[in-house]
Every structure is written in structure tokens, then in C-alpha cells.
Automatic annotation (TrEMBL), chain A:
CDD domains: At1g26750. Residues 163-186 are annotated as: Disordered. This is Small ribosomal subunit protein mS23. The lineage of its organism: Eukaryota, Metazoa, Chordata, Craniata, Vertebrata. GO terms for cellular component: mitochondrion; ribosome.
From TrEMBL, chain B:
One of its GO terms (biological process) is translation. It is found in: Mitochondrion. Keywords: Mitochondrion, Ribonucleoprotein, Ribosomal protein, Signal. The lineage of its organism: Eukaryota, Metazoa, Chordata, Craniata, Vertebrata. It comes from Oncorhynchus mykiss. This is Small ribosomal subunit protein uS2m. Required for mitoribosome formation and stability, and mitochondrial translation. The keyword Ribonucleoprotein applies.
Length: 186, 250
């Protein structure tokens, strides 16, 4: 059966239609899909589009970015608190994350309209604390310095020297009067 | 194949009131790989739309590498993820399924093609359930264009090729798309945002990465083809009966 293998010229339909019109393909050999395509054509003709050479320089954004008003709140939340205390549980479809709770509380307080913008952020944090959600600021010390045992700051050599001076009749073999250099790992 | 969403920070957005309060969008929103989606403000209430909206269908590729030709089908881009416009997807899917149904009704050979190894078995079993054919392995160069020599003279070529992913394993366009256009065979293809939809006769913009989306499409095509074939058998029976009735009465 005759055909046209020029996929870059016209669509499948136009080629077959023209082949039939010129008599190359008989009406009895009409493809099954011809009538269906004629009755229900696609929205856009499947024409071959030649690849355009890459345009250097300024290219306008064809696809718009999607941003919401709540994104400002979310951005601030993540900047201050880092990722929330609770991980995202994606197995639940109705899961509400820490950030989302924060955003909801923020919009709630904003809708009341009593507080001003600067304090709104702090107030939301306090409100969530009252509800039992603890938020910890990002960038703080990993372990609080007050709870650190002072023994951990001592050098092992000095401790050995102390033991040996305590022990009776031993020559104190101190390795030297070094100052407490801050070499011990914190 | 997971999304580095949580590292981006702004994740887990899936609330309808955001749409009302937000800036620009009044359409479907994207969530994460598993959880999805809000109900948009459109009033289309077909079953298919509901099914589609409850699946991560509009969550395509992870990097901003959308094909230029796919840009009209995109709703927008959220943190470098291109979101496909589901309103358009519904229309395209409707026309594609309609075409498939009519073709199946007229008794044709349909070929399912997908080079995604993850869904190879799914596509093959779908084809088996419909009574149609599938090709999910390496596509030899002359499969369509050199068919009489490779498979013997007088071989019947498929009348419709359905691509469940128009890309091959090297992220280039599948050879079958071009070959089908060469052999004047219409194609229905699931085009993702990094695909080139120009040669596909009935492109359906949608996600081809997630199992949930692929299962939906397979189910839809299987249902369409089975219904079309049942209708055909029914019509043949009716015609057969009416022909018998005429001959006996006359």
C-alpha cells in the first residue's frame, strides 16, 4: 500500500487526505482512523515543529511562578526556626505540619486585627507555645552551656598529675606547666 | 525517584482556602509526592476529573527543564517544579479516550508503548486485559518502517499507538513517535513536561513518573477499550438478530 513517510510536512491526516484525493490510496483502502479523526480532530494539529536554535540573552518567563500570600509567613518561619520540630508525615493526606499550624495561627491573629505586623510574628510563637507547640530558634548552641559539666573542660594530663600528687611517695611526673589551652573538644 | 521537597522549605501546601486568599492561582495546587490536592474552583464534576484531582498528576518534573512546546500546557511553576494545568489535561484526555474508543469499536489493532521499566509489566498486563498489544522493550529501528521485511510480507501494522511515556531511557523522544508519524499511524501519548508533544496526534499532558498516575491511565484506557469492544459485540449481535428476523418474517 502506498504511503507518505514525510512526517515533517503536514499532519498524518492531511497526508492521508491528500493521498486519497490524488487517487494514490483508494477509498476502499481508507484507514480505520480517518473518519474518526475527521469527526473528532485534536485541539492542536500534530504538526512537526522544527527545533529553534537556543535564544541567548534575555528570555521572558513564559511559565508564571506560583506564589501565595502565605509564602511570606512561611519563608520567615523557616528562616527563624529552621525546619520545624516535627518531621513531615506524608503517609497521611490530612497532615498539618508545624509550619502550616504557624501560618494558620498567624492569619487568625492577623484577622483579629489587634496587633501590628512586627509583633505578630512573636505573638504567633507565643500563642503556639501556649498550645503546647515548642519552637526553637535556629542557630542556637547545640547544648546549653549552663548544663555542661565543668569536669569536661579539664585536660586528662592535669587530672593524671593530680592523682599522682595525691598518691603517697610518688614523684610527681607532671608533663609540664601548660596552660589550659582550649584544645579539648567542646 | 523522590522529590527533594522538604529541603526547599516551602512544602506541604495543600489547602483550598489558600487558593481563595492567594495571589494568582485559582486552579489545582500541587502538594507532595504522596499527599494531594485541593479541590479547585472549577465546577467540572466528572468522575474522571475527581479521580485525576486526587492524584499527583500535575506534579511532573523536578527541575525547570520544561520543553518549550509544553509551556502552553503548564499552569505555572512552584519552586522550580512545573505544574501542569489539569483543566487542559481533562479535555485532552477526554478527546484521546474518545478517539481510542471509536477506533477500538471499529476493530483495530492498538499498540501500547512505554519504555519505562518501572511500568513495563503494568502496561503489558493492561494490554493483555484489553486484548490488545504492547511493546515495552527495546524498539528496533525498523519495527514499523521495515515491518514487511522483519515480520514477513502482509503484516498488519497497528492502527493506533498509545504511548504511556513518549521518552525512552535516555530521555530522548521515543523513536516510535516519529515512526508512527512516518507510517501515517495516529498516536495518543502521555506527555510530561520534558517531552516534545508536536508529533503526537492526541497528546495528553500529565505526569508519567508516579505509579498512581500510570495506574490511573492504564485503568482508563483498559476501561475505554473494553467498553468499546463490548459495544461492538452488542451491535453485531443486534444486527445479526435483526437480519435473522427479517429473513424469517419475509
Amino acid at each position: 500500500m502506498a504511503g507518505s513517510r514525510l512526517e515533517k510536512f503536514g499532519t498524518v491526516f492531511t497526508r492521508v487526505r491528500d493521498l486519497m484525493r490524488s487517487g494514490v490510496v483508494k477509498q476502499s483502502d481508507k484507514p480505520i482512523w480517518y473518519d474518526v479523526y475527521k469527526a473528532f480532530p485534536p485541539k492542536k494539529d500534530p504538526l512537526y515543529v522544527r527545533p529553534v536554535a537556543k535564544i541567548y540573552g534575555k528570555k521572558e518567563e513564559a511559565v508564571p511562578d506560583i506564589f501565595y500570600r502565605e509564602d511570606e509567613i512561611r519563608a520567615k518561619f523557616y528562616e527563624v526556626y529552621g525546619t520545624g520540630p516535627r518531621a513531615f508525615d506524608l503517609t497521611k493526606s490530612n497532615f498539618v505540619s508545624t509550619c502550616q499550624r504557624f501560618v494558620e495561627k498567624y492569619t487568625e491573629l492577623e484577622s483579629w486585627g489587634e496587633l501590628e505586623k512586627q509583633s505578630l510574628f512573636e505573638e504567633t510563637g507565643k500563642a503556639l507555645l501556649a498550645e503546647g507547640l515548642v519552637l526553637r530558634r535556629r542557630g542556637g548552641p547545640a547544648v546549653a552551656s549552663a548544663t555542661r559539666d565543668p569536669v569536661l573542660g579539664m585536660k586528662l594530663t592535669d587530672m593524671l598529675a593530680e592523682l599522682q600528687t595525691d598518691a603517697p611517695g610518688e614523684t610527681p611526673t607532671t608533663p609540664g606547666e601548660e596552660t589550659q589551652a582550649p584544645v579539648t573538644p567542646q | 525517584n523522590f522529590m527533594p521537597v522538604c529541603s526547599l522549605g516551602l512544602c506541604g501546601l495543600h489547602h483550598p482556602w489558600l487558593v481563595a486568599a492567594g495571589y494568582s492561582c485559582s486552579g489545582p495546587l500541587c502538594a507532595t509526592a504522596v499527599a494531594v490536592k485541593t479541590l479547585p474552583l472549577q465546577t467540572d464534576s466528572t468522575n474522571v476529573t475527581d479521580k485525576i484531582l486526587n492524584l499527583p498528576l500535575e506534579m511532573p518534573d523536578f527541575f525547570r527543564c520544561a520543553d518549550r512546546l509544553m509551556e502552553p500546557y503548564l499552569f505555572g511553576s512552584r519552586l522550580d517544579q512545573d505544574i501542569i494545568d489539569l483543566d487542559q489535561t481533562v479535555e485532552h484526555l477526554q478527546s484521546a479516550l474518545n478517539f481510542t474508543a471509536h477506533i477500538a469499536y471499529r476493530g483495530s489493532v492498538i499498540l501500547f508503548v512505554s519504555r519505562r521499566r518501572q511500568f513495563g509489566h503494568l502496561v503489558e498486563s493492561t494490554a493483555q486485559d484489553c486484548g490488545e498489544y504492547a511493546h515495552t522493550r527495546y524498539w528496533q529501528g525498523g519495527l514499523l518502517t521495515n515491518a514487511p521485511i522483519q515480520y514477513g510480507p502482509g503484516v498488519r501494522l497497528p492502527d493506533l499507538i498509545v504511548f504511556f511515556s513518549t521518552l525512552n531511557n535516555v530521555f530522548q523522544q521515543h523513536v516510535g513517535v516519529r515512526d508512527a508519524a512516518k507510517m501515517n499511524i495516529p498516536t495518543v501519548g502521555l506527555v510530561d513536561s520534558n517531552c516534545n508533544p508536536s508529533l503526537v496526534t492526541y497528546p495528553v499532558p500529565g505526569n508519567d513518573d508516579t505509579p498512581a498516575a500510570m495506574e490511573l491511565y492504564c485503568r482508563l484506557f483498559k476501561m475505554t477499550i473494553n467498553r468499546a469492544k463490548d459495544k461492538r459485540r452488542q451491535m453485531e449481535l443486534l444486527q445479526g438478530r435483526s437480519a435473522v428476523g427479517l429473513t424469517t418474517s419475509s
